[in-house]
Amino acid sequence: MIFMIGYGIIQDKLGLKKHLIWLLSVILVLTGPFLIYIYEPLLRHNFSLGLAIGSLFFGIGYLAGCGLLDSFTEKMARAFCFEYGTARAWGSFGYAIGALLAGIFFAINPHINFWLVSLFGVCFIIINMLFKSEQTVSGTHHLEKVHKDDFIAVFKDIKFWIFVLFITGTWSFYNIYDQQMFPVFYAGLFSSVETGTRVYGYLNSFQVVLEAIGMAVIPFFVNKVGAKKALIAGGMIMICRILVSATSESPYIISLIKLFHAIEVPLFVISVFKYSVSNFDSRLSSTIFLVGFQIASSLGIVLLSIPVGMLFDAFGYHFVFYLFSAIVSVILLFGVVFLSNGRNTGSRSAVVQNETL
């Protein structure tokens, strides 16, 4: 979370300059040697030190880095006039292919996967070296530099904290449901846990492919209805999926609503970016995404996981799912009333920056 804050502020100051992207490139290249020759031995012989160093490495390169790359891609999308979701779809396709190949290579030797990450890191560096913005951007104009007061203004804006509360009350609960509870719940619907786990793996792979398609097409829906309405629609899909899980024990029905995830995730993530750009200073889109979305949802998960676990131990799945549905419904009504429909205009919301990469 600390790195997310730093990444957001620094990237907003850099604009389209790729200093932090170069840092991620280096970390990708170093992943194989680090995991094999440093991290793995440390976990075997000095677990605490390995945990500390691993937290630093993964925090800089992956946990915070993924959000940074998303926010940078969104800046690029606005600068070069394409949809963020259309570009992000290839990430979902890559995840689906990577998960398939990683499973095969893991059965042979897990180290193969680590070296492949480094190999793709080299490819990432080559792409960064070859791409030059000045060769493709035309008709650009220079924006005002970002100052400390600009960041302070966002954090003083009541609309920002309404947005954070909405994210915490929807996305955090949904992620606890989807990541921590649903896989075990789903596996328990079958004659054996092993069968359920295997079917879940197949279903999840299919869902990732659908999610990639959703990333490509949903931006056009969001553009048509607006970011606020799209966020509300995403919340309604969350409620539908959680509520059906509470009321049904049919593996067929539960499998079907699992696929709703392929609609909900693109709808929510794309809407978050479009909402932040249309309601806040677009120069600060990285900070707003990493703090207002990534950190808010992660902090919500950290704070809520323990009490949710206690409720689950006491009352079971169905009670918790009903409770989640009720809470998300209340927050959804809150969003209908208080989320803004505003759209920024002027230089502070301009989308193109005359910056070299």
Rg, alpha carbons:
21 Å
What amount of the residues lies in strands?
under 5%
Largest β-sheet summary? none
Q: Which residue ranges are poorly predicted, with pLDDT under 50 across at least 5 consecutive positions?
A: 345-357
Q: What is the highest CATH level, the class of the largest domain?
A: Mainly Alpha
| Global geometry | globular
Tell me the distance between the termini.
26 Å
Overall number of structural domains: 2
- CATH topology call of the largest domain: Growth Hormone, Chain: A
CATH architecture of the largest domain: Up-down Bundle
Keywords: Cell inner membrane, Cell membrane, Membrane, Plasmid, Sugar transport, Transmembrane, Transmembrane helix, Transport
Transmembrane segments: 20-39, 51-69, 89-108, 114-131, 158-177, 199-222, 229-246, 252-275, 287-307, 319-339
Domain Major facilitator superfamily (MFS) profile: 1-343
Protein name: Oligosaccharide MFS transporter
Describe this structure as you would to a colleague:
The chain crosses the membrane at residues 20-39, 51-69, 89-108, 114-131, 158-177, 199-222, 229-246, 252-275, 287-307, 319-339. The longest helix is centred in the middle third of the chain and has 33 residues, at 193-225. The chain has 14 helices and no strands. The protein starts with a helix and ends in a 19-residue tail after the last helix. With 357 residues, the chain is mostly helical. The chain folds into two domains: 2-135, no CATH class; 152-349, Growth Hormone, Chain: A, CATH 1.20.1250.20.
